Amino acid sequence: MAGIVGVHGIGKYKYFMEAGQSVGGAAEAMRQKWDRYLHVSQGGETEDYFSEVAYYAHVLHDGPAGGHPLGFAAMDAPTHQVLIDWAKHLGLGEDLTRSLKAFTGWLLAKLDSRSASFAKLFAPEVAAYLTNPAKREKAQAIVADVIRRNQPKVLIAHSLGSVVTYETLWANPDLQVDLLITLGSPLGMRNVVFERLLPAPINGRGERPKGVGRWVNIADKDDIAAIPPDLRDSFDGIDVEELVNLDWIDFHTAEKYLGCPALTPYLQPFLA
């Protein structure tokens, strides 16, 4: 069985490198993993749930050498700014009294190890997507092509992938899906993502893309990427919000989200 398209989140450039710098190889490796993850929540026979996972991580990097997170000293100014603006949501970084680079070093030292590791993936890729028009356009073109070729009924977008998907669907009104599921989405994150969205929110509100029949948003209560977890405060057209409790360590992984029982009632009508 197939019929679901996935859109991945942060930190997936490693798949490109492991596949010998093959985009197709990276996408297939992710598809197989996402199928295994989803089997956990669906509890049935092993099936090919996903037609394809749209793979775009390679366009957010400047080459193979950029495939692994660099130290904070090597981050560019947009990345430093994303990191600081994100940290304000955690109650850190309110007073910027030194250079971005020095402040970022202080900030990463203040975070616990799991949060610091997350930040070193999150900030560079979010900055690359939101502040580099060429990379943004390429990522959207990839996602649009995958949706157009597969014509899925269900689209599951995780993490930064929910941002790419949201903008892709708005930019390509011919794309239609019955169900959009966003997992661990930072779409509503103020001063980091929300105000930079295209199309721009109107009067402080975003809106469900016209080609989406139903929108379900699922977020872990401790997910430091999904801030705020409740997107209804910022977007019109969200049909269901689910606040879940996944794992205090793996608070943002696709594995935990896809293996979460909360997905079952929304997916079952399409898997029957």
Task: Write up what this structure looks like.
- The chain is of the alpha/beta class.
- The protein has two domains: 4-61 and 132-271, Rossmann fold (3-Layer(aba) Sandwich), CATH 3.40.50; 69-128, no CATH class.
- It is 41% helix and 14% strand.
- The chain contains nine helices and eight strands.
- It has helices at 13-18, 23-42, 77-88, 100-110, 113-131, 133-150, 160-171, 254-258, 264-271, and strands spanning 4-7, 50-54, 154-158, 177-183, 206-207, 212-220, 235-236, 240-244.
- A six-stranded parallel β-sheet has the order 2-1-3-4-6-8, sandwiched between helices.
- It starts with a strand and ends with a helix.
- The model is unreliable at 65-72 (pLDDT under 50).
Protein traits:
2 domains; six-stranded parallel beta sheet; two-stranded parallel sheet; 272 residues; alpha/beta; Rossmann fold
List strands and helices in order, with pairings.
Elements: E1 4-7, H1 13-18, H2 23-42, E2 50-54, H3 77-88, H4 100-110, H5 113-131, H6 133-150, E3 154-158, H7 160-171, E4 177-183, E5 206-207, E6 212-220, E7 235-236, E8 240-244, H8 254-258, H9 264-271
Parallel strand pairs: 1-2, 1-3, 3-4, 4-6, 5-7, 6-8
Helix pairs in contact: 3-4, 3-5, 5-6, 6-7
Instruction: Determine the CATH topology of the largest domain.
Output: Rossmann fold
| CATH top level assignment of the largest domain | Alpha Beta
Q: How many DSSP helices?
A: 9
What is the CA–CA distance across the termini? 10 Å
Major sheet characteristics: 6 strands, parallel
List the secondary-structure elements in sequence, H or E: EHHEHHHHEHEEEEEHH
Give the helix proportion (percent range): 40-55%
Shape, principal axes of CA atoms: globular
Average pLDDT, all residues: 86
Number of strands: 8
Q: Which strand order do you get reading across the main beta sheet?
A: 2-1-3-4-6-8
Give the C-alpha Rg.
18 Å
Number of domains: 2
CATH architecture of the largest domain: 3-Layer(aba) Sandwich
